[in-house]
Amino acid sequence: MASSIVSMISIFLLFAMSGHALASLSPTFYSSTCPNLTGIVRAAVQQVVASEPRMCASLVRLFFHDCHVNGCDASIMLNGSNNEQFAFPNINSLRGYNVIENIKALVEAKCPNTVSCADIIVIVARECVMALNGPTWTVTFGRRDSLTANQTAANVELPPFFLNVSRLIANFQSHGLSVQDLVALSGSHTIGQGQCGNFKSRLYGPSLSSSPDYMNPYYNQSLRSQCPSSGGDSNLSPLDLQTPVVFDNKYYKNLINFSGLFHSDQTLWSGGDWTVAQLVHTYAMNQARFFQDFATGMINMGNLKPLLAPNGQIRKYCGKVN
Ligand code: HEM
């Protein structure tokens, strides 16, 4: 008994001396090792937004696509054609890898070998939402970077644009995320752009008002000019037509107006799930409530299955393992 207590204490001391926290995530994780982390990231994000506001939308999506595949472990950042960047939902679509790499270099210059790429992705997403007038929340730190990426998991886990509401709920629940998280986090589609190939099938078929995929005819008309029936698959349209670089609750007002861009958006209002539709209505009426639940959802998504010391590593460059 005494000897096993002694060995547990020595394992603890070993970790402590090797600089590993026997840790869970914490908002103060870098307080002594990189006290100005938030300041460095905030200044960099402000420059990014000034030169290309859409990039912040892309970075929020990058957070989702990292965290929804085995937790937030920066696996999305690993280069190489077998990796997640080449998975179907990401290829020719996900962007912002260079921005994360550049911010990591700024952080490395001040706090070498200290801050994980996974944590940088998480704080950049928060700073981006704030920079576009959205809510703020407390970010926790201490995630480690993975040693591998998993393209197969990315193909299976990331929800495609054609899912209906019950499959979206199942997808989020399989990641430990609630119906409220699904509806609130989908509100990210109040910023950014989508490619014609992902919504074209909704534009040119018959659109019956009784159909769960019914689209407002005026909205349909305006999308057709950007998205012809043949070709133009990579043409971009805003996910929220009126305020694509402002983080507001317009997305939900659009859904109620049958003006959601993707099937996976409109199904939240029209898909026949009353709990989900009620949440859409609440967020459309009450932006403060949306902001509160969005912040909760981002915290929940950021904290799932964290890779903690002594597993993983602090990558020097986000694009490759050390
Ligand atoms: C609920 C299931 C979801 C589906 C099916 C979905 C699907 C998509 C698709 C198809 C695009 C456009 C990609 C392209 O055309 O290249 C997109 C864009 C985007 N998504 Fe989602 N998404 C979902 C949830 C989320 C969540 C949870 C977040 C963030 C927390 C998010 C953030 C974004 C953002 C910000 C964009 C715009 C990116 C840009 O402009 O580069 N999405 N999403």
Automatic annotation (TrEMBL):
Residues holding Ca(2+) 1: D66, V69, G71, D73, S75, E84
GO MF assignments: heme binding; lactoperoxidase activity; metal ion binding; peroxidase activity
Residues the entry annotates as binding substrate: P159
Binding site for Ca(2+) 2: T190, D240, T243, D248
The reaction(s) this protein catalyses: 2 a phenolic donor + H2O2 = 2 a phenolic radical donor + 2 H2O
Main localization category: secreted
Enzyme class: oxidoreductase
Entry EC no(s): 1.11.1.7
Domain of life according to the entry: Eukaryota
Keywords of the record: Calcium, Disulfide bond, Heme, Hydrogen peroxide, Iron, Metal-binding, Oxidoreductase, Peroxidase, Secreted, Signal
Domain Plant heme peroxidase family profile stretches: 24-322
Annotated localization: Secreted
Coiled-coil boundaries: none
List of catalytic residues: H65 (proton acceptor)
Site (Transition state stabilizer): R61
Free-text comment on the cofactor: Binds 1 heme b (iron(II)-protoporphyrin IX) group per subunit. Binds 2 calcium ions per subunit.
Reported cofactor(s): heme b; Ca(2+)
Signal peptide start-end: 1-23
Family according to the record: Belongs to the peroxidase family. Classical plant (class III) peroxidase subfamily.
Job of this protein: Removal of H(2)O(2), oxidation of toxic reductants, biosynthesis and degradation of lignin, suberization, auxin catabolism, response to environmental stresses such as wounding, pathogen attack and oxidative stress.
Name of the protein in its database record: Peroxidase
